[in-house]
UniProtKB/TrEMBL annotation:
Superkingdom as given in the UniProt entry: Eukaryota
Organism the protein comes from: Exophiala spinifera
One GO cellular component, as annotated: cytoplasm
UniProt name for this protein: NAD-dependent epimerase/dehydratase domain-containing protein
InterPro entries on file: Epimerase_deHydtase, NAD(P)-bd_dom_sf, NAD(P)-dependent_oxidoreduct
Entry GO MF terms: aldehyde dehydrogenase (NAD+) activity
Pfam family membership, one: Epimerase
Length: 350
């Protein structure tokens, strides 16, 4: 690796998204060998990364903001796949990148991970209803600020901080906002997602799948392999100096399909029933309060936005920059039995 080679830092490398993104970009023709580093907390994780050609950078935790900023000063691109609800660490990383730019005079870039619950409505509680189908060519940042003025939501708060800090420091920021993610990841640590596995664990525990109210609200989905590819496409565009939307215009969607919450619950119920684990091939309706307790960490906001809201998106701009996802409805439907079997097998070992 020469001194002129852009240096890339990945955060969240031991996670589902970050691990998959890391393994994907290592195969990119635009990424030179030895140019990728990743933040990790433990020496054993560092050893795994070293074995795959990634330079590990040890840190304590996301609240170690001074370290986060100092580390980012040594990189030209940061791909932030850590906690999308943690605004201060994202700001620290962007601030560090700005110091890099001051030193080298070269443009620096921050690719951030977010989710479409930021756009979700409250159709169960009735606090706010949204019937729009958003595209990533709409003014999504303005909409996020509009919604944030009504009620704060940490992941959305972080998006706004990312864009505004980037604009204030001349760091180019890009946000990849994802819906329900499914499929097995390609990283070397955690390889399963959040939403569908959580539904499966609850179903195993209670003997039946569950859905909030009627489950009519709709979301989108994306396979983790397709999502990781979008990160690689965006990174490649950055490294090749292509003209890309950034800042307040640089929010990219990643959908490849659409489902209702009832579809998810029925997929879990059918898979569990066919495996002989669940009592019936149909889900049971629960209240928003129950959703908050078992999936939303006790928060009615999380329980509704993340498990019962309507949030419909179309990834127009992502496709325009060259993203060509390959997974479809069949992959989505087959995933239920695959994930159910894995999680059930793990539950028997505990």
């Amino acid at each position: 690796m020469s001194e002129s080679t852009p240096r890339i830092l990945v955060t969240g490398a031991t996670g589902y998204i970050g691990g998959s993104v890391l393994s994907e970009i290592l195969q990119s023709p635009a990424v030179e060998a030895g140019s990728v580093s990743a933040l990790v907390r433990r020496p054993d994780q560092a050893e795994v990364l070293l074995a795959h050609g990634v330079t590990p950078v040890l840190f304590k935790h996301l609240d170690d903001l001074e370290t986060m900023e100092k580390v980012a000063r040594d990189f030209d691109v940061v791909i932030n796949c850590a906690n999308g609800f943690h605004a201060s660490s994202a700001v620290a990383l962007i601030t560090g990148l700005s110091k890099r730019k001051e030193k080298t005079g070269k443009q620096v870039h921050f690719i951030h991970t977010s989710g479409t619950s930021n756009l979700g409505d409250y159709r169960i509680s009735g606090k706010y209803k949204e019937n729009r189908i958003f595209t990533d060519k709409d003014h999504i940042f303005a909409y996020e600020k509009y919604r944030e003025d009504m009620e704060t939501y940490p992941q959305r708060t972080t998006d706004i901080a990312v864009v505004e800090t980037g604009l204030a420091t001349s760091v180019r920021t890009y946000i990849i906002m994802s819906p329900t993610i499914y499929g097995f990841g390609s990283g070397w640590f955690n390889t399963i997602s959040i939403q569908i596995p959580a539904l499966i664990r609850t179903a195993i525990e209670k003997g039946h799948a569950e859905v909030v109210a009627a489950g009519n609200a709709k979301w989108n989905s994306v396979h983790i392999a397709d999502l990781a590819l979008l990160y690689e496409i965006l990174l490649r565009g950055v490294l090749e100096g292509r003209k890309l939307a950034y800042g307040s215009q640089g929010i990219y969607f990643s959908e490849t399909g659409e489902h209702s919450w009832l579809d998810l619950a029925e997929g879990v119920a059918k898979a569990g029933f066919e495996l002989g684990v669940l009592e019936a091939p149909a889900p049971v309706s629960i209240t928003l309060q129950q959703s908050a307790q078992q999936w939303g960490k006790g928060s009615l906001q999380y329980g509704e936005l993340g498990w019962a809201s309507s949030s419909r998106t179309r990834a127009v701009m992502s496709r325009e920059i060259g993203w060509k996802p390959t997974k479809g409805r069949r992959d989505f439907e087959e995933n239920f039995s695959e994930e159910f079997q894995l999680i059930f097998n793990r539950s028997k070992k505990q």
